[in-house]
Design brief:
Blueprint: H1 7-29, H2 32-48, H3 59-78, H4 88-91, H5 107-123, H6 127-137, H7 143-150, H8 154-178
Helix pairs in contact: 1-2, 1-3, 2-3, 3-7, 5-8, 6-8, 7-8
């Protein structure tokens, strides 16, 4: 129904994917307001280009790719670097492995510090490696979906995620060693 231009069917897609898209964009754009703006532009473009949706990928993958392109264009216009993950702490639901430790004194502070350390380490990883890692680990995309979104081969997705993980581990180990 949506592909025939039915506005109600498209409204259902907006409701279904809006929160997920905004949440994902917050990790990339470092701003909820920017994420909301980009998501809105992406949905408008998706509606306008609905006839170009081939269906060989999931709708959300296609929509995310549109949003990513909008964000890149916006960053170029504003001469800023898209890719910061400053809002990861607010959006994350970090859970300790042992739930009984939630009541331990200082647990919340330790948790916040761990998230901050990961955020800082992620910021220092080159965008070409950080972006596939975020799509995989935070947004939950499959390797195939990441390849479609970023328009890169599956092997490149795997190697970039591997390299990003290695770099993240090395950076975190250096920080822990310094402390």
């Amino acid at each position: 129904m949506t592909l025939q231009g039915n506005p109600r069917a498209f409204d259902d897609l907006v409701r279904r994917y809006q929160d997920r898209l905004v949440h994902s964009l917050e990790h990339v754009l470092n701003s909820r307001e920017d994420a909301l703006d980009v998501a809105q532009q992406a949905f408008v473009l998706a509606w306008q280009k609905l006839s170009s949706f081939r269906g060989d990928a999931g709708f959300y993958s296609w929509l995310y790719r549109i949003a990513r392109n909008v964000a890149i264009s916006r960053a170029r216009r504003q001469h800023i670097s898209a890719g910061s993950l400053d809002h990861m702490h607010e959006a994350s639901a970090f859970e300790p492995a042992d739930p009984s430790q939630q009541n331990a004194p200082g647990h919340a502070m330790e948790q916040a510090e761990q998230v901050r350390l990961v955020q800082e380490a992620l910021k220092k990883i080159a965008d070409e490696f950080r972006q596939p890692l975020v799509l995989k680990e935070i947004d939950g995309f499959s390797y195939e979906e990441i390849g479609e979104i970023l328009d890169i081969p599956l092997g490149t997705v795997r190697s970039r995620i591997f390299r990003a993980r290695q770099e993240l581990i090395e950076r975190l180990q250096r920080v822990m060693k310094d402390e």
